[in-house]
Amino acid sequence: MAAGFEKECLNLVKKLGNDKIKLVLELTERNPIPVTPEARAIFDSLHQHNITFALDDFGTGYATYRYLQAFPVDFY
C-alpha cells in the first residue's frame, strides 16, 4: 500500500461529498497487500468513511482467503 493512500482516498471522498459518491476499492492478488495491524487500521478508517472493498477473482488464489479474514470485505 503506497504511502499517503489513506489520506488520498479520504481527501477524494471529502472533495466529492460523502453522500454523492460510492467508492469501491478492489483488492487483487496481483499487488498483494500485507496483512498487518497497520493495514487493518487503514482499511477500518476507510470503511468508516463509507469506502467499501471488493475482492477480485475470489477463490482463484490463497491471498483472497487471508483478505477475508483480515479486512472488511463488502463484495466478492
From TrEMBL:
Its EC number is 3.1.4.-. The keyword rRNA-binding does not apply. GO terms for molecular function: cyclic-guanylate-specific phosphodiesterase activity. PROSITE patterns: EAL. It holds the Pfam family EAL. Keywords: Hydrolase. InterPro entries: Cyclic-di-GMP_PDE-like (IPR050706), EAL_dom (IPR001633), EAL_sf (IPR035919). Residues 1-76 form the EAL domain. It is an enzyme of class 3 (hydrolase). It comes from the Bacteria. This is Putative signal transduction protein.
